[in-house]
């Protein structure tokens, strides 16, 4: 036994290893904590905690509490610091100050006007009528206007200002008692003003003195991140295109860059407005319009990056499944499909038989080169030694890449280097630094690429005669590969040109931020004077952003007057007046039909009903005992436009109220009425809740935890410092009863939340699912209108004007609608329906495919911008105008049919894609017939045909996306998503 003892000694040496692991774990945790504290997010949370601590001093310090008067409610100062928190930029704080001032002015106007109204009726012994007017006009309409403003502006700071105004109005109208008595009391109004000034002052002091954040720096940082991310995406897309693989699109570098770009791009408009406020206050407004140009550039190149990605995906899809070879007029199945096409022609477009008959005779009997041998015989002989489809297309694509690849990689490397330099130059403080040789380097690289592009395509088309293009199948493959290469090449060229535009903007910005130009001016105060340089710039930019001609240029209308019409029908002189009145009536009725107006009306009615007990003598004591004013505040905070949003906020506020109540009881049991202990524990509570609000994205949850905490703990401290006869119902002896106080507040808050959900869901409910469908319908109808615009027709009538499918304004509107779709999709997830769960997967795919269609359109616009109109191209456009209009009409009809299917929840059985495909085939047939009859020498790039070939490829891809959309729409209408998805 003695000899066995030493063998057991190593087992007792394990604890040191465990201690080492514990120490290592604690060290890692400390490093993570220190890294968080020193980060921008950690500093923001600490600033919020500090501002809350300063706000709570209005309750804990007797001298400051005395300034606010004997009334209760001093904890509102701390509540203001929770909503107007300092974790924002200086520009955002300026905006918060403006919003808070407007909120106070509105609350003061409503409060004082309602007091004088009740005095008027009280003097005439009709105070009940005065109370009714206050409920209907000042509570109903006043709170309804706040709700309408929140929805119309859709701005977080405006929402906070409306919440602050509703808080002040509720305290004055329902709790203070002057209106109920029919008298004027300025004490509460002045107290609200003092609390507002204290809360905003504490927040602004912390925001401006403790690690201030500049919106201009954040804007520059976001632009630098966006530029760097787009450079990575462009490089990855180009390399994937050259290597014929999209595996890198799922890699860490590309997905990370895409995520960073989406986040940075989404904040640009907000940061631009905050930067404007900072620069105007600092007197540097001259530099602001350069910032505007930078943001406009960023919006444009983000769409170009999406178009470049769409072009690459189109190439990959075409290489996997060639489209032109499947065309019945030039593929290996030409003879077999002739009868089928004849049936389609008789069933669909009987009027177009002569055109297709001519194409059949010319195409099916002889080839384009003039050989008098039937195509069927050529195909039979060619099929014996025919290269497999994918191998032939890949071989042709590789021959293109061998010539275009080096120039593409060279341009990509130059774009990467320039983007890196731009990102570094944008990161500097208060100035922009750029190398003077960068514009020349980029211009040279773009010109070299353009020349290499022309030379590569020219050599390929010259060598086409030497290739074995003895069948229509090979000819179709060659044209298809040439089209996808040209399509991608123009998108890449446009990306490089837009980067050159950025260098021009930065050069002007560099001059504006150097030397005497940095002199402060504050010329914006002289509002009666207009800056001519700025107005000229805006006029030029607007003309450039909207190149679409007027309606009279597109389709001139000639009015003819019937003979003798004036003899029996004369317009009345009152007709213009009647038309004006009719328009005003129609606009007014349209205003009342809008969702924002309906929402405001029902919120106002709900607020008036909730406030009614405070005006009735037999229910007012119960209203005051259960703190009904805080229930009304909760009601105003919970009400949201859609049912899903109300359910989300209602659940978060319900949970936050319960957590806040438990924390209040725990804190009071620990510190009691000790001011130092409560201040420290309140600071800790603020740190935790702001971490939840700012970093975890649970704003309503964190804010309601602190709201309940303030209503319970800070009110209990104020009650402990007052006389014993004040609020005896909430005391236990001479000390406040924290349990009863918390119960009253929690009951009031929960009642307000429940009432808000009842009003939102029971009175004219606005469902997120319904708005999601209507927004999708609007998007598809807009896309249909865009297709019907047919910029190729405008290119014929006015070749000197750049005609596009989507102007920059159209792209911004479309992107805004797509963003709204994502927001509504999130809200719709929380709408509880008994019939079926929300089909989130199907809607996600529909939105994704719709975004792809928008990117395809922009990619086609880039090709329209890159290929200048020529005589031969205009001749071809005129020759194919009828078929192109039919094809555009079919696409527009399909988009409208899809919109109707999802709007009315009917299966899309009536939607027939074969008509669109047939119109595409007719369009291709017309091109081939034109080509067979025109043997003139083509240009180096054969731009006459490459534009329309790219047009057909994009249409084919859009038809494929619509087919996938139809599958998901069918799932929605039949309810399969609830089972499958």
UniProtKB/TrEMBL annotation:
<dbReference type="Pfam" id="PF13515">
    <property type="entry name" value="FUSC_2"/>
</dbReference>
<dbReference type="InterPro" id="IPR052430">
    <property type="entry name" value="IVT-Associated"/>
</dbReference>
<keyword id="KW-0812">Transmembrane</keyword>
<dbReference type="InterPro" id="IPR049453">
    <property type="entry name" value="Memb_transporter_dom"/>
</dbReference>
<feature type="transmembrane region" description="Helical">
    <location>
        <begin position="651"/>
        <end position="670"/>
    </location>
</feature>
<feature type="transmembrane region" description="Helical">
    <location>
        <begin position="741"/>
        <end position="764"/>
    </location>
</feature>
<feature type="domain" description="Integral membrane bound transporter">
    <location>
        <begin position="617"/>
        <end position="759"/>
    </location>
</feature>
<feature type="transmembrane region" description="Helical">
    <location>
        <begin position="49"/>
        <end position="68"/>
    </location>
</feature>
<keyword id="KW-0472">Membrane</keyword>
<feature type="transmembrane region" description="Helical">
    <location>
        <begin position="96"/>
        <end position="117"/>
    </location>
</feature>
<feature type="transmembrane region" description="Helical">
    <location>
        <begin position="676"/>
        <end position="694"/>
    </location>
</feature>
<feature type="transmembrane region" description="Helical">
    <location>
        <begin position="129"/>
        <end position="149"/>
    </location>
</feature>
<protein>
    <submittedName>
        <fullName>Fusaric acid resistance protein-like-domain-containing protein</fullName>
    </submittedName>
</protein>
<feature type="transmembrane region" description="Helical">
    <location>
        <begin position="193"/>
        <end position="213"/>
    </location>
</feature>
<feature type="transmembrane region" description="Helical">
    <location>
        <begin position="156"/>
        <end position="173"/>
    </location>
</feature>
<keyword id="KW-1133">Transmembrane helix</keyword>
<feature type="transmembrane region" description="Helical">
    <location>
        <begin position="599"/>
        <end position="618"/>
    </location>
</feature>
<dbReference type="GO" id="GO:0016020">
    <property type="term" value="C:membrane"/>
</dbReference>
